[in-house]
Amino acid sequence: MEQHHENRSVWWELSSAGPCMLMRRLINRHNQALFDPFYWLAVCYCSPEFDRADIIPPPVQPQRETLNYLVTGLVDPPDLEDEQMAQAASSRWVTVLGGLKQADPTQSVYVLNMELWMHVVPGTDGGGKRWEFESEQVPLVRTSGAEVRILCGEFGHRQGKIAQHPLGTTILDVTLAPGGIWEYQVPPENTTLLYVFGGKVCFGKDAQVCYGKDSLLRVCGTDVITASFGTGGRFLLFSARPLTRKTPLACPANDCVCRIKK
Fold first, then answer.
1. Virtual torsion, Cα 201, 203, 207, 213, nearest 10 deg
2. Distance CA 178, CA 230 (A)
3. Cis check: omega of the bond before 178, within 30 degrees of 0
4. N or C: which end of the chain has fewer CB within 10 A?
5. How far apart are CA 106 and CA 84, in angstroms?
6. 141 pLDDT higher than 90
C-alpha cells in the first residue's frame, strides 16, 4: 500500500508561525513529478486567531495558477461514548463537519487553510490567476450521505466557483455524515488525489481500507467509493489531466487507493 520515493518524505513539517498551529507541505519540488499537473500543495491547521490577512499570496508567475481555500468549521468536543454519539448524530443541534463535532453550533473557528499550485496549459490565458475561496461561500450540493462543496468543475449538475478549467480539473470538499456513503467517477487518465483532514474515511466497495486525518492518497482507476461510520469524515478531492504524460501511473493490483508515504 505504501509507496517509497528514494527515501524522500512527502511530508515537510514546518514550525508554526503566528496563528498557524501546524503547517505541512504535501507536494513540493521533491515529489511534484508524481502529481502532474499539481506541483505544490500545503496545508495549515489554524487557531481561532487566524485571519485571511495572514496569508501572503505567492508572486505571480505566468506558468502557474494558484488557489487558496480557507475551511471554516467547528472545534472538537470531548470524546463521546457510543450511545452519546448516536444521540448526537440524530440531533439537529449537532453539526458533523468531517468528524469535527461540537455541541454548540454557534462556535465557529478556522480549521484548515490549503494552498494549491497548478501548471498552466500552454496556449491558454490561465497564467498568473489566483483564486481565494472560503468553504461557506462555494456552491454546496447535499446528497443522502454527504455534503459536497464545489471549488472547481461540476457536481450534481451544479458548477463550482471555477466553472470550467482547461485540464478538466475537479476540486471538491466532501463531508461524510456518520454512516454516509459517497461515490464519484473520475476519468482514468486523470491524476486524482484525496487528502483526509477530518474524521475517518473508508474506501472501496466493502470499505476495506480506512484512513484518518492527515492521509494523502492517490486514486487508482475511475471509481471513488467512500464511506464513514461513527465519526463522519471530511476530505478534499483533486482531479485533473496531466500535462506531461498520456497514461495514468500504475497502481498496486486490487487497491482502490495508494497512501503516499508519510
1. -20
2. 5
3. no
4. N
5. 20
6. yes
